[in-house]
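PROTEIN ENTRY
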Amino acid sequence: MRASLAGAVDRLHALVHDVAWVGRDNVHLTLKFLGAVESDRLESVTAALTGAAATCRPFELGLGRLGAFPSLTHPRVIWAGVDEGAAESAALAARVDAALTGLGFEPETRPYSPHVTLGRVRQPRRQPHLVEVTGGGSHGRQRVDRVSLMRSELSPRGARYTELAAIPLAAAGPESPVSPSALRIE
């Protein structure tokens, strides 16, 4: 998946300008962004995530079409959309949101839109050539069998991620030939 997404970003470089591209090793699917969390709360956050993850079975996640928020011609965020496992990742995100709302985190107000961010446009402006490289296609698939609680630290060179906890989903089902992976809670 990462190699395919890196190839897509290489093609986008020539067509879309003034974008902060996400590094190949930093692409991920976020279930919920928490913001700053005090270290003394991490144990209760991990426990809540463990409860939410225990209700979801591992699933296959596939990335397909490229797109942009809010639109292809005036993008702020360029992304790869989830085309397989979208319902499962949305259900998991809803369970995570409910579990963390119980700890006092703000509930999500927007509908969950499963995607992997590829880049953020620095100065919004019309990008007419983005339409040329979006649409259908596949960027691979992989098995998701855990969620990760991540710390993200922003720097001028981009974000640096540190895994604080890895929480398995409910008992694994049939083995899959693809690599296991995690979805992130930051």
The chain has one domain: 2-185.
